[in-house]
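Blackboard transcription, Thursday session:
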Amino acid sequence: MADTRNKPGSWTRDIAMMMGTYIPGFAKPPARFVTEDGRAVHGVLAEFKTPAEVYHAAEKVRDKGYKRWDLYSPFPIHGIEGAMGFKRTKLPLLVAAIGFTGAGLGLLLQYWVSAVAYPLVVQGKPYGAWEPFVPIMFELGVLPSAFAALFGMLALNGLPRFHHPLLGQKSFWRVSDDRFFICIEAEDTKFDAQEVRTLLESAGSTNVELVEDDA
Amino acid sequence: MSQISTQSSPDAAMDDHAYQAVLDRLATEPALADDNITLTSAEAAGVSRLLLGLGVVGLVIAAGGFALNFRAGFAAMQIGLFAVTAIALGALFFVLVFHITNAGWCATIRRQFENVASLLPLCMIGVAVLLVVELATGGTLLRWLGTDYEGHHLMVHKEGYLNPTFLVIRFLVYAGIWTFLAFRMRGWSTEQDQSGDRWLTRRMRFNSGWGILAFALTTAFFAFDFLMGMDFRFFSTMWGVYFFAACAFSSLAFLAIVFAWLMSKGKLQGVVTSEHLHDHGKLMFAFTVFWGYIAFSQYFLIWYSNIPEETMFYIFRRTGDWALLSKVLIAVHFLIPFFLLVSRVPKRNPRFIAAIGAFMLFAHAIDMTFIIQPMVDAGEEKVIGLSSWWAIAGGVLGFIGIFGFLLLRKMVAVPLTATKDPRLPLALNHKNYV
Amino acid sequence: MKDPDQINTERLAGMGTVALAQTGDGTLIEDPAIEAPLVINDREFADVTETVCGYAEKPAPLWWYAALTAASGAALMAMIFIPYLIITGVGVWGLNNQVDWAWDITNFVFWIGIGHAGTLISAVLCLLKQKWRTAVNRSAEAMTIFAVVCAGIFPGIHIGRVWMAWMLAPLPNYNAIWPNFRSPLLWDVFAVSTYATVSLLFWYMGMIPDLATLRDRAQRRIAEGKAMHLRLMLPTGKPLDIKFINMDKIRAFGYGLFSIGWRFSSRHWHRYEAAYLILAGIATPLVLSVHSIVSFDFATSVLPGWHTTIFPPYFVAGAIFGGFAMVLLLLVPLRVVLPNFSDLLTLRHLENMAKILLVTGMMVGFAYAMEFFIAWYGGNEYEWSVFINNRANPAEAPYWWSYWIMISCNVISPQLFWFRKLRQNPTVIWIVALAVTIGMWFERFTIIVTSLHRAWLPGEWHMFWPTWVDILTFVGSCGIFLTLFMLFTKFLPMFAMAELKAVMPQASPHPHDEEGGH
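(Written on the board underneath:)
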């Protein structure tokens, strides 16, 4: 395995990676590690059998100071944020901003149509009375918020992505059934295949394997 | 600790001996240490005196309203009394709901709801006094009791319902049902603290079933009789729900202050945590939205249809002093609490949540004023309007002071949390993920 | 094999001696010190995957073909009579100048009401942390969407000239006239379309991980050389194998496409759960708003029997009531016919839903009582006349039977659930759910038709009777609903597997801390 370290973990590199992943014609930056036969290394994957095992393993990986790693489980494990040491998502702020904007625009649309563009006396009510605008204002607040919640979540997660290296790993397919995995990625500044393997095995993994990036 | 009930049921999955092991573990739980979950009279004395003082001063100020005219003073008292009655009623509602849903997380906070609800009988004494005054004066705010409207075609129509005897009977029914539920719910709960009998939980759940039905009907008709009935012509099917929304809203606000105060005294550490406050805050948020929904629906349907016999209620409250008050009501009872509570941060902080609770109680007082005070001027030459605001403020603060004072006496009498509720382990470990 | 009751009580008690529960499947433990299990028979994560994916992967049984044939046969009625209506005109219905809303709007409100339970189960019960919802939320959400599809049909076709439907959009028409934003009917358009969209997003989002599970299983079988081919069932009960169609390749592609590369990452789960909670948070007031707005269609008018302020919460309670009844109506039979279904949907789940039927039934009853009381108390003779002379009094009201069907089905029949033995009996639950479904249809019929058929002048009085087109169009909408539901049971994960696994006792990362987890 050869090391081709070049400015690992920087955000410019992240963006270059993303463009290389999504936009044809953009070359991916060279991998930090390659195997003997020249294939890029994605990381080291370790399998666990129970939530408790993987939970404690995650605490160990966190304490070693790794940054580019992830835990995979068939369902969200409660309290895993603390064991992995990552921050709360900012998604609620995004949704709130979009929701209130939607409601505001909804009110504006109705007011403009009813009082400016086509004022018409209906049921003897004032043109600009706020009361009848409440229902649609509410609906137009909810609709974009729902889109923001789903698509914002997907965007922050970098999905859809159909060709992630892990999805090609046969043993990893049981993650959607009853197995738990930790993958420490080669992008991590502290990555060293042998050290990582020892760490994960000592944490109780039953099966540790190298994941290659075929793409 | 002493004896364990020998009662056994065919549905038992655990025998009493095994359950004793659960209780033993609870007994050694550090969070349930005595000084953490009991409030001594000495610790409460300072605040207790303060509240009593506030109560007396407030009521004296409110009594000053009588100088304007009898009705103004009476309304100031009634606004205060109904504000605290709503708080106690809302607390009773939550006790019943916690039981009927078999909710685990609220086992540690339920005791304070029970304490507040157990003041309901005292509120009923207040309402009884009010009713006696109404009957004696021939209708102060319940104007139909008097002779002014004798022979009015609507009074003739409603005579079967709107007559003094039936009103008194109905009042006794409400007071009886609420007293029973409030006392028994707290009684069984404290009995469980002593005996550790887990089957009491089932008994409370069973009684909450019919209790909540009785609660819904009595609360609605109580609101019809004492609030909607002030104008005998007005009617709204939503009125009972509207008053219920006010009850739930105000009781949660009040209890947020209670918990924050206890926590600031170093009590309930690890028993009522920011996780419980978070969920309590979510309920506050939910009932802020619920009140907004109910208040808007009622107003909106009446506004839209514009039928004279209904619309007069809101037309009157959209003219003169009341126009401003109704706008303030929307802001303080819905918009401001909505934006304060929508985020996660303030809900988890005792200081914030108590401040929001205090603000919501202010909104609740505005709501009661909005309902009651306009009736002072009905059919009178001399318009009082909001000029007696100081008397109203005195009435509200006075009753809340007395209410808080009495509540402290309830609080020192029993542990601050249920100590042997079978769902206590769940509640102690309560956590909001995500 | 051990008795399931025994296994569960032993495992749950975990200490001391065990008294055997005598009833049901072991989930009906009344002991307050013990939480009933959500999945029974000592199931592992893999069992849940196997059971749930099995419904979508194994060849469909014969009864499924029979049910699908019957349902799609009924759906054909809609396919015939909706074009017939559009070509001929709304005169083929029984509507007249006086009763200008009848079966069409009754069906609309009926279906949209049913469409509320799904989002309610998912959203409200999620916010209330009712873990038992995981057994029913997926199928209830599916039901929501199919019911909203049916609901959307009726207002669409009842306007007669369906090609003018675009005028509902906030666009000026060729005379530069804009739609009237003060009309409740326009609010309906926004509310129902928002609701349909948000429900779909919610349902889809919940399914992403489960679709990924189906994808991975298909891939595993392909990799192991055990790919499944298409197998149909002949009416004789014999299987017909079609070898050249590789089902697992189709699955890996189809489920793979819609699971958009979900890889079960914890960082993803974290945002996913946040998004789910937000969706639940906004879907809850949305559910309330949609049926409230439907109620505004009636309550903003000045018509006696329609204009009353309690309508918004009353309609919402009725919608929850009718929706839960429909969930039970569909799921109780599935417990019998699908293997292991009753391990995931236990008697305790049914009991909980029966209790909700009782509570919401009482809420509806409360609203009926308030309406009736205020109709008298308000002193408006027309209001009172609608309640007595148009609805309740058999001597005066031609539609008295409709009113009393409504009362007996909606208020009286759920009272059975005060009795523990009855609310724990699936047969009784199913019968009551059927009664409630019927009762809720008649509720809408009562509200709409009895208020309309007699106006202020006796000269305007007309009766409404449905024509065969009315009836068959309604049958057709039931067919569409059931067809979609049958397809759902065969091709999509019927349980939220990921959520179900998360509430199983094994899912706690702190197994030795007995009170731990959540």
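Lecturer's comment: Chain B is about 70% helix and 0% strand.
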